[in-house]
Amino acid sequence: MKTERDFIHTDGPNYHITRRREILAHHPEIRNLYGPYRLSALYIVMVVAFQLAIAYLLKDQAWWVILLAAYAVGAFANHSLYVMIHECTHNVVLKSALGNKIMGLVCDFPLVLPSAMGFRKYHMIHHKHLGEYSYDPDIVSRTEANLVGNSAVKKALWLMFFSISQGLRPLKVKFYKPLNFWTVINVVLNLAINIAVFKFASPMAFLYLALSTLFALGLHPLGGRWIQEHFITKEGQETYSYYGPLNKLSFNMGYHNEHHDFMNVPWVHQPKIKKLAPEYYDNLASYNSWTKVLVNFIFNEKIDSYTRMVHPDRHPKGAIDNEKNLYSKEVIETFY
């Protein structure tokens, strides 16, 4: 008899909260790593300029040249800009929130899709409600998970168009409105840049940027990152880090356990966390190849969109939706 698939349920809160307290009790020097790394702003400008220059240089090339360039070069550049959007979201690029918002908008210039302001909002919800089905935008809906299923072909297609999946995630997040003043600015600004690239460079230049984003978020060695972070491959472990060579091109984005433990530490200092507190990280399962993670997800029938740890929803307004696994008032207050 076939049993219906579901997420991996646990009654406790995400373990990053308790582990952060333990690590800081033993290694208070980690607090010295907090704060903005302003050199990231220069890196953002350099990568944006690089991508726009490459797009212009390729404006008269054949479609297959555009395709190869986007896969081999553009994907890495655009992915690094998504990582910098992530840094701006945590206000670890510049000192002020306004400055980080502006730099996030700059990151979006070659990305075609207006992502920075939406990500800024929903990524922080991901941290606040990690693993909660109704509120964590990093978890797919059951409808989507059932649609993808366990087919290798479907999982590969899902990864290829992962950007669409991410764009639709806010629709399942309760009690948070997707639009605000900054998202409107983001959309208008990106639309203007897209039109300018299309008109004053060429359609091929625009195609290069669009394909770079598609590959950066999809069926590409970099795509292993989306599986690496929270798909369960070791019982009881919710988050995983990647310590392979692509961290050099991804601003240390692979240090995901370290990031969830200390999200106020900028990318340049993430490896230092592991070095300062090896007893908390060396015993955790981790990866050294995003490509292997990607291939394993596609062809391993034991892993699919349901292979995620889910905690009880703990948004105060959502208590009636979670009658079976309610947190006590004290636990809710410790999170808020």
Question: What is the rounded Rg?
Answer: 20 Å
Helix content estimate: 40-55%
Basic shape: globular
Number of helices: 16
Uncertain residue segments: 319-336
Give the termini distance in whole angstroms: 43 Å
Plain-language structure description:
This protein is mainly α and 336 residues long. The chain has one domain. It has 16 helices and four strands. The strands form two sheets. It has a two-stranded parallel sheet with strand order 1-4. The chain has a two-stranded parallel ribbon with strand order 2-3.
Layout of strands and helices, then pairs:
Elements: E1 8-9, H1 16-26, H2 39-57, H3 63-89, H4 97-107, H5 116-128, H6 142-148, H7 152-160, H8 162-168, H9 181-201, H10 203-216, H11 224-228, E2 241-242, H12 256-261, H13 270-276, H14 278-281, E3 286-287, H15 290-299, E4 309-310, H16 329-335
Parallel strand pairs: 1-4, 2-3
In brief, what are we looking at here?
This protein has 336 residues and is an all-alpha fold.
Quickly list its features.
53% helix, single chain, 336 residues, globular, 16 helices, disordered C terminus, 2% strand, two-stranded parallel sheet, mainly alpha
